Amino acid sequence: MHSTEKPLDAAGLIRQTGLKCTPARVQVLELLLSQQEVLSADEVFEKLRQLGATLNFSTVYRILENFTEKKLTEKVLLPQSRKYGFLVYTFSHTHHLICLGCHKVVNLDGCPLHGFEEEMAKKNHFQIVGHALELYGYCEECQKKGLPR
Ligand SMILES: [Zn+2]
Ligand SMILES: [Zn+2]
After folding, report:
1. How far away, in angstroms, is 95 Cα from ligand 2 center?
2. pLDDT digits (tens, 9 = 90+) for 92-149
3. Ligand 1 geometric centre to CA of 108 (Å)
4. Do 5 and 43 belong to one domain?
């Protein structure tokens, strides 16, 4: 999982999770692997259709949910549209900067919550198993375009 040499082969990644490797799942994952941005389920569906896929929306949605359960994708809230977006899980613990204009994602180095998490666990007698942190804003290009309006 931590090898950087491993090729991002959609079928291989799906098999690693124990999910059955169906052509539909491969299509969805290949699309996500080729993207540098968060896509909502609608956008995944639309892009696949443009590529000639014949999946229906509920199939695409179910596949994205399956992938998320298996930690193949991450589901993040896009606050502006109040929709969920999906992106490929990076196999290492990362947080993201997400542009609300173009949905570009920048991976942040390291985790600012590392010490905080332990502190909160102790203080609240809570067994913490994970956290989510996304930062939202506008990338340089979108700022130049005059977003946000
Ligand atoms: Zn942007
Ligand atoms: Zn973190």
Report:
1. 6
2. 577 889 999 999 999 887 788 878 888 999 999 998 777 888 899 999 999 999 877 6
3. 16
4. yes
| Number of domains within the chain | 2
CATH number of 103's domain:
3.30.1490.190
CATH number at residue 54: 1.10.10.10
Q: How far is the CA of 116 from the centre of ligand 2 (A)?
A: 10
d(CA 73, CA 125): 30
Q: What is the CA(99)–ligand 1 centre distance, in A?
A: 5
Ligand nearest to the CA of 148: 1
- Residue where a domain stops, chosen among 92, 109, 130: 92
Question: pLDDT by residue (tens digit) across 8-64?
Answer: 689 988 998 899 999 999 999 999 988 878 899 999 999 999 999 999 999 999 999
Q: Which domain holds residue 56?
A: 1-92
Mapping DSSP onto H, E and C, the string for 75-102 reads EEEECCCCEEEEEECCCCCCEEEEECCC
**pTM more than 0.85:** no
Question: Which residues are within 5 Å of ligand 2 (an ion), measured at CB?
Answer: 111, 113
CA distances for 58 relative to 39, 65, 103, 110, angstroms: 16, 10, 23, 35
Query: Are 9 and 68 part of one and the same domain?
Result: yes
Decide if 123 contacts 78 (C-beta within 8 A). Answer: no
